[in-house]
Amino acid sequence: MKKALVIGGGVAGPVVAMALRQVGMEAVVHEAYAVAAHGVGSGLALSTNGLSALQQLDAHKAVREVGYPLDRGVMHLGDGRLLGGDATGTPLSDGTTTVSLRRADLYAALTAQALDRGVRIEYGKRLVGVSHQRDQVTAEFADGTRASSTRSVARSGNDGLSSFSPLTARPPLARSRGLLPATSGSRCTRWPRRGGGPATAWCSSVTPRT
Fold first, then answer.
1. What is the 3-state secondary structure (H, E, C) of 50-84?
2. Which residues pair with 86 in a beta bridge?
3. Model-level pTM?
4. Of 84, 89, 160, 163, which cross-links 48 as Cys (Cβ 3.0–4.6 Å)?
5. How do residues 107-159 score in pLDDT, each as one tens digit?
6. How many Cα neighbours within 13 Å face the side chain of 133?
């Protein structure tokens, strides 16, 4: 079985590892921090395109169960003016809609799914270097250890924009567009934009959990 190194054990790392295992590859997740990030982070909304990707791994139900369905969203400027609103996306085939949830709950659900499927997660593995030799990639960590694989995967998302991850698969870095999410109901908290002027906020109508 071919082996892949997944750098970063936040939200995306366990998902990448599950996808690799699904196509027959062994995947080991290497997380920089010494302990799991339980309880870390604020709230977010996971749209149906992201949930559709998780559905391919049969992992979307675990995420859906720890969040709230969002049927509709509206956008306001920070001064209260309404920009507009619409449905939050086309539901999946099983009726799943956009979900609002805590980052900590999303992390816990995805990590549990990965561990249940045999994914190994190693903590305290901060990446400091990478070397290539033919078809083999070797990752070097701050604790002096190394790990090699025939393939490599780097995860650099919202949790790792400034992380060191010069591996073969690296998405472009995200840039702020001045959008601020709020999922506390139909009213928005007003946040000022840096440098002056109203910030834009996304406020979603939340269906309460029963």
1. HHHHHHCCCCHHHHHCCCEEEEEEEEEECCCCEEE
2. 73
3. 0.73
4. 89
5. 999 999 999 999 999 999 999 998 888 878 899 999 999 999 876 555 544 44
6. 5
Instruction: Give me the pLDDT at residue 81, please.
Output: 82
Which residue bears the tokens 């980052």? 103
CA 96 to CA 122: how far, in whole Å? 32
Two tokens, residue 190: 């007003």
Q: Which residues contact 83 (CB under 8 A, 6 or more apart)?
A: 74, 75, 76, 77, 200
Domain boundaries defined on the chain: 3-206
Cα separation, 59 vs 61, in Å, equals 6
3-206: CATH class: alpha beta
Q: Is 137 helix (H, G, I), strand (E, B) or coil?
A: strand
